[in-house]
Amino acid sequence: MIQIRNFSKKLTAKMAILACIAIATRRGGRHMTAAAFCVAKSSTGPTTSTTSTRAFSRNSLPFLAGSTCFGGSSNSNVLATSAASLISSSALMSTTATQEDVEKVAAVEHPSYEIISKDVVTEYGAYCTMYRHKKTGAEILSVHNDDDNKVFGITFRTPPTDSTGVPHILEHSVLCGSRKYRTKEPFVQLLQGSLQTFLNAFTYPDRTCYVLASQNEKDFKNLINVYTDAVFHPRATSDPAVHAQEGWHLELEDKEQPLTYKGVVYNEMKGVYSSPDSRLYRQSQRSIFPSNTYSVDSGGDPKVIPNLSFEDFKQFHAKFYHPANSRIFFWGDDDVKQRLDLMDEYLCEFDASPESKPASVVEWQKKTITEPKWETHPYPVGDDQPETNMVMVNWLLNERPFTPTEDLIVGVLDHLLMGNGQSVLYKTLMESGLGSAITGGGLSDELLQATFSVGLKGVQAENTKAVEELVIKTLEKVLQEGFSEEEIASSMNTIEFRLREFNTGSYPKGLSFMLGAMAKWIYDGKPTDALKFEEPLVELKAMIAENGDAVFKDFLKEYLVNNLHRVTVELAPSKSLESEELKEEQDRLAAIKSSLSDEELDDVIKKTAELKALQASEDAPEDRATIPSLELADLKREVTEFPIEVSENENDSGVTVVRHELASTSGIAYVNFAVDTSGVDYNDIALLPIFTRIMTETGAGEYTDVQLSQRIGTHTGGVGASLMKTSVTPDSVPSYAIYEGNNMITKLSIRGKATSEKTGELFSIFKLILTEANIDSKKKVIEMLKETKSRIESSIQGSGHSYANNRIKARYSVGGFLDEKMGGITYLKTVNELIKQAETDWDLVLKRLENIRSAILNNATCRSGMILDITGDKAVMDAIKPSVEEFLKSLPGDAVGEKLQDYYNTEHPWATKAKEEMATIAPLKDEGFVVPTQVSYVGKGGLLFEEGEKVHGSTAVVSRFLRTGYLWDHVRVIGGAYGGFCTFNPMGGDGIFTFLSYRDPNLDKTIDVYDATADALLKAAEELEDDPEALATAIIGAVGDLDGALSPDQKGSKSFNRWLLRQTPEERQQFRDEILNTKASNFKDFAMRLKNMKKSSVAVVSSKAAFESAAKAGKVMELKQVL
Description:
Blueprint: E1 2-5, E2 31-33, H1 89-92, H2 99-106, E3 113-121, E4 126-133, E5 139-144, E6 150-157, H3 166-173, H4 186-192, E7 196-203, E8 207-214, H5 217-232, H6 240-246, E9 249-251, E10 260-262, H7 264-274, H8 276-288, H9 310-320, E11 326-332, H10 336-347, H11 356-359, E12 373-380, E13 389-396, H12 404-418, H13 424-431, E14 437-444, E15 451-459, H14 464-481, H15 485-501, H16 509-521, H17 534-547, H18 550-561, E16 566-574, H19 577-595, H20 598-616, H21 621-624, E17 645-647, E18 656-662, E19 668-676, H22 688-697, H23 705-715, E20 719-727, E21 744-755, H24 759-772, H25 778-798, H26 800-810, H27 814-823, H28 827-840, H29 842-856, E22 867-873, H30 874-890, H31 909-921, E23 927-930, E24 937-943, H32 954-964, H33 966-974, E25 979-984, E26 992-998, H34 1004-1011, H35 1013-1025, H36 1028-1042, H37 1048-1060, H38 1065-1076, H39 1080-1091, E27 1094-1102, H40 1104-1112, E28 1118-1121
Parallel strand pairs: 1-7, 5-11, 12-16, 18-22, 23-27, 23-28
Antiparallel strand pairs: 1-2, 3-4, 4-5, 6-8, 6-11, 7-8, 9-10, 13-15, 13-16, 14-15, 17-18, 19-21, 19-22, 20-21, 24-26, 24-27, 25-26
């Protein structure tokens, strides 16, 4: 389950489920409190949280050139036509039948419904029919196309009136059993044994969405039935235990102990409120919306959540979860009549409720602030953390709905101001030296009214007013000077490419389509208005052709410069706030306890025991049988292979070219150019993450940073650089076996995309940033380092489990240690040292950066280590041949130079050095990392397999079984953490197994749960011997993890990685067969390995108080103050 905020940081690609159409004009637009499990198929392992940043970031810009361009390079105006040459998405989702035939299939008549409207979103080949259920008034948007990744969603408008978190708690609770599906956690059963490609729910500030997707039609219908019964007939409204478990309850096991609060959402939100960034965004939203529903926290304020009674909880469901207040969505190639029949089975039980929809209307916030305001609030900092402030300036933009064209104008204006590091407002703030990182990120427009927020964190107290002044003065200066043709062309092309490409990554296209439609539909607008972009684009281009930048200046003036409904929110550091809030909670609980009689205390103890017993109990077989499931026979047994063609030393260039020719890539070439980095000195590898940013952010050759950004935006779909580090198996080691990890392929990867006729420009940019990036940029590099420091500090508090996981793995493997060295919790110290060095001895830092480039471009060996990886359709491949040939000729290095070392069979030089440091920097000991937080992130791990041992495919089934079973039950449900899970690579590798928890109210008790896992798994193995259906469910879920829907670029990337790892189709099939043939005995084998896990150790991110409490319980760790 995911809670979404309006005022927010931006998302990484890993959780950019909302990216597309309506969101294409902004960089993600919201912060998510991530679910404990990854339920969209982006990988075979659990992905548990997001690191918030700006999607559309400098390293992953999804840019497109427009069909008409209003500027070009820094030297001249250019008419760019690449977006026009993109194959329309409608062509990809078209049918061989006539349009009339398709419309008949899409707009089926049904006696229970009336057709309200028919529409075709030609931009995405989507045939849309809006139905209204005659009896209840429920609205259904049925979208028919040939996408086999089918999507279903049901959304209720749920505006809260207080911060008890009732919408959020209800979102969790309705998935805990229902009238037809009687287990305690049908959601978990679905996770365990479904082929779903997405399965989750979101709480917005004003609505709640339940969404699922599957490529298997039987599975799709099963999921729809469970979700629909859950929202309309949940157990939660009749069983107070659900409200207690998911929301909050008083917990007491002994009268001598202190009373405590427990509850999944309660602890989740304590974690959220531990984050200074989250506090800033929540205070900002409240301040800018003083008198409508957005003034309260739909996710829940931990101080207010305990005010939610079970009766209020029930009434909220009764008020808002009626079909009349629902918006139901279908997408895909399934039969439309069957959709309508299925929904009618549920809807027909209800009568009309004409008051439901009016009762949920979200009121417009009037611009009542006539003079800009300033608010100051505290945020917690650690004893060793610098006492800096955070400042964010916030505007409420509109008091009426924007038209589609106005939506586009505001989106482009936002990109002009904040779209990337070279956009004028973003750049001015970062280069001011007033702070270390941007806050806010600009436009947020997924709610009824749009807002604009921007500021800085890491601000000295005496500079807070200067931040606000700089924001205002910069906007006034932009209003006076305007935007250049080049700026407008780059932003327009960026957004148009995004819209036309419709690349949602591993997330279903239908999910993005639904969330885009909901931007209008949830407020009683026409859903397809939010999805059509052709007419607004044409209109906006005509406006620009006639009036130039005045189009954007007029909006800037009205909605920002002259807009007085503005609140600046400052967060000031407090070293006592964490202890003050803890004491406030303890005092409140002590007062409650003192007010209770002995009989009442006995009742609390009794209810605590009853809830724990219920949570620990197994579902009855007859209840378990109510959950619909697939059978092993429904599974695809063959591995999906993707095209690949490898050309070594192509055209005598010395470069290896890898091609993936797909059926269609919409006229886009996806390119990855990899250059070997093994020659980089080990002492300089900590600079590589900054070096990759320098390549695209500081300018190159004759181009300034702004000009380079504009060139990328005008001519390509985005260019970014990153470090690729892949452990590989030596020839002497069998496939899927454990190996020492000394063998690695390390590359600097430059990725980009462009239409076929613009690929030459893309390659030219690749070469430019590789050979001529302006590395002598002291001020810019220091900015990057400070921004990195701020990001890590924020991430440790919000995603401590990932840092604990890195730290554990660093103790056992070279690869894990290098990950820690270049991005783990100890990297924070390195970054601080680099900042000091850059400020006091720039010449030394510059020399190190120059050495990195020289090593990468070593004339004798660099060609041997270059790989050009291209994904495209046949037309693209044919069209770009001349550009490829020219690019290969132009590259630096000797085409007949020396061959690089074979690092498949030779120890990588970084590995040699890393092994010398591991024992000192990542010692094998239990460690605790102290940060200001109200929750814990508890990790424990060790070696499950030793070098040379082969890993069986069944380990994928068993580790997933633990993740969605025992750990879910004991860490999350019983323990009250927001997430409990484990990680293990079933394809061999390092043999490391780790346990992790997320936003956990416990520490020592969670470690006890981990230590009991082996015995629990042994017991489960015995039960599975006599329960073939449960075993099949576990296998089905593991197979589902292998078969997620992939975008064209992801198919190419997956094929490339397989080639890099030298996996054969036969080996992949063997691995899949081992999963499909998993036996109960494999569970027993895995349990015995857990029981005998070698060299286990602990890493925890938590508060000082939590560590002190754990020490009293015998869990003693070496503590290190991080923040």
